[in-house]
Write a structure and sequence with these properties.
The chain is 77% helix and 0% strand. The chain has 133 residues and is mainly α. Residues 1-19 have a biased composition (Acidic residues). Residues 1-25 are annotated as: Disordered.
Amino acid sequence: LPEDDEDEEEEDEEEEIDDSERRRNHNILERQRRNDLRSSFLTLRDHVPELVKNEKAAKVVILKKATEYVHSLQAEEQKLLLEKEKFNRQTVLSGYGANGCSCKEFIARLPNNNGLPLFFLLKNCRWWGFFFF
């Protein structure tokens, strides 16, 4: 019986060591995860112009301001895309009208009329006056 008690004590000690090592490993991994998360928040904060100089910004503030900034960038992108499309359309219209092409050729060459009325598309065509005046 005393021998059995010693074996059980050794097993208990080994389990305690295993548990202790598991806890230590878990704590190390958890600390690393928290450090990575903190680093990610700091990186995000540094990419939001409104927060660059705010070293004490709370995580929730960083998330809200980053979301606002992304939305403002998306709105700016949409605005620029519309301006680009308008510029391209004006360039196409002025270029084809100046080349003296026929209205049929002019319309066929347009990549997309973007919902513009036909008279708008034809106003730079050399046949414009013939059809509409």
